[in-house]
Design goal:
The protein is of the alpha+beta class. The chain contains five helices and seven strands; from the N terminus they run βααββαββββαα. It is 28% helix and 30% strand. The chain is globular and about 50 Å long. The two termini are 19 Å apart.
């Protein structure tokens, strides 16, 4: 399902490989429990308020500074430590493609505009190749800063996936298929697929 948006001709591609199946990456990208584990810059945390995973649907969330340096910086410049944000989904193809628009409405002396991000997930053996296509922002400096932030977020995502895949292997699940159980008890409570995953005997957990 899609709405009509195409990447910019000068878009940049960030590529990462993950030792986990595309279905796991999809859960981490498209569920509140998944997003809240990794989707924030260093020193911030994200809490999802609403999520409608359809083209034209909104992801609404609050990003809050939690590290002392980030909190102090925002207070020094007179900005709130928590900001309400949203994305609008333009393409939802489970579990291979996700695209969304982000409003860029906070740049001084610049008209607001929408920024497109497209995420493609490709199975690669037992793992996944992720390609993140980012439209440029309004100038080179803002674009470079945006790429750096997205790279940092992907590093956090990779750490979450490594923790899950390592725990799965420790439990003897060598195929890394999504399960309703997580080997790491601390991670289990935040496992994004917990409420609807394969192989559950609990009807409340079935999708």
């Amino acid at each position: 399902m899609t709405t009509e948006h195409r990447p910019h001709t000068d878009a940049t591609r960030l590529e990462r490989s993950f030792d986990a199946p595309p279905e796991l990456l999809w859960e981490l990208l498209t569920t509140a429990a998944g997003l809240e584990q990794w989707w924030a810059p260093d020193g911030f945390e994200t809490r999802v308020r609403a999520l409608a995973l359809v083209p034209g649907g909104l992801l609404e969330y609050t990003m809050t500074a939690v590290a002392p340096d980030q909190v102090a910086f925002l207070r020094d410049i007179g900005q709130p430590v928590a900001t309400d944000l949203h994305k609008t989904f333009t393409e939802v193809v489970r579990p291979t493609r996700l695209a969304y628009l982000s409003p860029i409405d906070f740049v001084p002396d610049h008209e607001p505009y929408d920024h497109l991000t497209t995420v493609d997930l490709e199975a690669a053996g037992d793992g996944t190749r992720m390609i993140v296509t980012l439209d440029p922002l309004h100038d080179a400096a803002w674009t470079a800063q945006h790429h750096a932030h997205r790279g940092s977020e992907l590093d956090t995502l990779a750490a979450v996936v490594r923790r899950w895949s390592g725990g799965a292997r420790a439990a003897g699940r060598t195929n890394l298929a999504i399960s309703c159980e997580a080997a790491d008890p601390e991670f289990a409570d935040r496992w994004p697929g917990k409420a609807g995953c394969v192989g559950s005997d609990n009807p409340e957990r079935r999708s």
